[in-house]
Amino acid sequence: xxxxxxxxxxxxxxxxxxxxxxxxxxxxxxxxxxxxxxxxxxxxxxxxxxxxxxxxxxxxxxxxxxxxxxxxxxxxxxxxxxxxxxxxxxxxxxxxxxxxxxxxxxxxxxxxxxxxxxxxxxxxxxxxxxxxxxxxxxxxxxxxxxxxxxxxxxxxxxxxxxxxxxxxxxxxxxxxxxxxxxxxxxxxxxxxxxxxxxxxxxxxxxxxxxxxxxxxxxxxxxxxxxxxxxxxxxxxxxxxxxxxxxxxxxxxxxxxxxxxxxxxxxxxxxxxxxxxxxxxxxxxxxxxxxxxxxxxxxxxxxxxxxxxxxxxxxxxxxxxxxxxxxxxxxxxxxxxxxxxxxxxxxxxxxxxxxxxxxxxxxxxxxxxxxxxxxxxxxxxxxxx
Length: 384
Ligand SMILES: *Cc1c(COP(=O)(O)O)cnc(C)c1O
Prior knowledge:
The chain is α/β, with parallel strands linked by helices. Helices cover 34% and strands 17% of the residues.
């Protein structure tokens, strides 16, 4: 059972929804305790409870008492563990232990060892504020100030000259390949262990993905095996940084140099990770981030291509917007796509970039906790 600071995540009945949301953000359990001044425990409020009351039309300044909720499940101090375990179900995941004065003295959690999420989105009132701006201003599509702002924030954070936003990580990978004229008859090297989008993007262009096995320790592409898969048709290597761990970029870049290949980083899962003190996304010819809900930061759906090459960045912009000429509206010289990001997505992105360092810190803490607990789990499991 994890030790938590109960006071830190307790709020009074006169607290606002905004305060409750902020307090949830401070804690680690995704909920707050609603407690009277004398310590009498009233209820457990989750992220979902607050969101539902906002959807009903209450504002961030409304008191938390507007939340309608059944009485919480609690147990008296001294209740046997098996009795407590029986009270958990899909809805009840947190059970406070109370004393005779109904004050919380301990908390029990449903055992989550079997289902650790890759990530949870980290959203608060700042996202709501910027999203509101889009709705009030009417800038909901891909025009609007947040798109450029988000692009420049990501470029700056990655340490690249250019960033081109797009509708998803997958469309970003597709654009990156197209910008380099990769198509039918070409081959692109991809790791065996990745999300399918890496290989799909290659297929969209008509090129062939060639799978190279992954390293057993890092789960990333094994550079020692790349050379054997290179043919006269090979044009590029897709280097995936799986689960936030950078691939062996020095070796990959050396092979690319020797064989005159392009390197595209699929950094979908690794924004903010560093490789030898350099940011992931700045380690090859081009790189792509994803902002799906389970990535480092999220815009709901969304992606970003980063590069130091002005020509490639411009080409991605052109292809992203139906191939429409910058000088002449509705003049289309090449086959393009609608892969644009909306101002609403970018608003979330701008808000998320304001807390990316905090998110990464949290991920590192979580990583240490998982490693520690898996170690304990393994030990107790195998000694049974
Ligand atoms: C998520 C992910 C993608 C695709 O991103 P979407 O934004 O979901 O299209 C591509 N590659 C990897 C490794 C991913 O994890």
